[in-house]
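Run log, item B.
One chain of 474 residues. Sequence copied directly from the ordering sheet:
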Amino acid sequence: MAAPWEDVLRNEAAIQQAALVAVDAALLEGVLMRTEREPNASDVVNYAPFTLLPSAVPSALFEQAYAVQQDFNLLVDAISQNKEFLEHTLASTIKVDDFTARLFRIHVQVLEEGLAQSVFLGINRSDYMFDCGVDGTPALKQIEINTIAASFGGLTSRTAAVHRRVLKVLGKSEEALRLLPNNPSKGLALGIAKAWELYGSQSAVVMFLVEEVQRNIFDQRCVENELWNRNIRVIRKRFRDVFEKGSLDDAKRLYMDGQEVAVVYYREGYVPKNYDQQNWEARLLLERSRAVKCPDIATQLAGTKKVQQELSQPGTLERLLPGRTEAIARIRATFAGLYSLDMGEEGDKIAATAIADPDRFVLKPQREGGGNNLYGEELRQVLEKIRDSPERTSYILMDKIKPQPAMNYLLRAHSPLQVSECISELGIFGVYVRQGKEMVMNKAAGHLLRTKAIEHADGGVAAGVAVLDTPYLV
C-alpha cells in the first residue's frame, strides 16, 4: 500500500525545502488554528498540524466508505426516532454514566412535552481504519460514528491544495493531479442551508453553539462563510449566552438577543466538562424549542458507544432498517468485533478474556472528542478494578484494529522535522435533512484523513495527536 514517494523520503535536502513550501502553502490556503497561548484571539495564528506528504489509501476501501455513508445516515436517523431502542440499549449505561443519563432525561422530557421541532438535520462523520488482520489484506473497519460536533470539514477542504503544491515542488506533478477534490465545508453548509430554508423564516439566523475555548475557529469559519455566501446570517454563541439571553415564545420559537433562531449547529456539548448546571438548563431550553438542532439530543444519543455495540448484535440492524437488505450488508461489512460489558455471564467472559489478552482489544467509554480510549496495560488495570462492578457497563470492548504503518513527516509548529512511522484514519462526512417523515436530503459530503505516529494510541487533531492529511488512492 505504499505511495509513490519512497525515493523522496530519503532525500533530506528535498524534504527540508518541501517542508518550508508546505508551511507557507498551509498559511496561504487558510489551514489555520489559533495558538494554545491565545486560544480566543486571532492576532497570532499558526498552521494546523498536517502531513508533509499525502498518505496512500486503497481505492476500493475509499469507495466502500463513501458507498455506505448514506446507509449510515439512514441508520442514525432511524435510531434517533426509536425511543424504545434507545431506552432498552442505554438502560444499563444510564445507571452508571451520569452524563449519558442527563442527556437521556432531557430526551424523555422533550418527547413527553411533544416535539416542537419538525425539521431534522444530521451532520455526522463515520471514521474507519484499514485493518490488515490475519492475511495482510486491508479491510475497512469502522472505529466510530460521530453524531455531534464532527470537526475538520472546513480545514480538510483546504488541505489537498497544500499537498498538490508539495508534490509539484518534489517533481511529482502527475501524482499531484490525482489528489481528489474535497470540500466538506460546502456539503455541510448545504445541509444547514436546507434546514434553514425548510424552517421557513427568511429573517431567522443560524446559531453556531461554540466552546469557551475556540482554537479551532477557522474550521468553523469555513462552514460559516459558505452560509454567508448564501445570504444566511450566522451568529456564534456559547451555552452561557443561551442561559442568559435565550428565550422561547408561545409557539416555542427560539430567540437570542431578539433574533429568531432557525438552526442550532452544535460545535460543543459532547463531553461532561462542557456542562455546569446553567449549561444543562440552556441545553434543555434549546431542545424544547422549534429550532432545528444539529444534532437533536436523540441523535447525539444515537452516537454513543453502547449503541454502536448494540448495532453489531444479530437482528438489530434488521429491526431498525426493515426491508433494506443491501444497506444492512454494506453497514455490517464495516463492523469490527464489538462486545458488551453488561452484568452477567457473557460480560464476565469477555472481561476475563480482555484482562488475559489486553492487546487484542480497545476499552471505550461513552465519550466523544478523542483521548478517552484505553489500551494494553492501562485497559487491563481498569478492567481488573471494575470487573465485578456495574461501572463496567459504562464501557464497551472492541477488537483492536491493526493497520499497516507507513513513513511520513508530521509538520507541527515549533517541532523538529523528523520522519515517523504513521497510521491513518479515514472519516466520511454525512449530511441528511428530514422534514416530518420525509427524507429531503441524504448524501456523503466529503472526507477527512487524519494521520498520527504509531506511538499515539488515541486522539484526533483537536486533541493534539493526529494531523490533517490527504488520501492518495492506490
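Observations after the first pass:
- Residues 12-29 form the longest helix (18 residues).
- The chain has a mean pLDDT of 94.
Flagged for discussion on Thursday.
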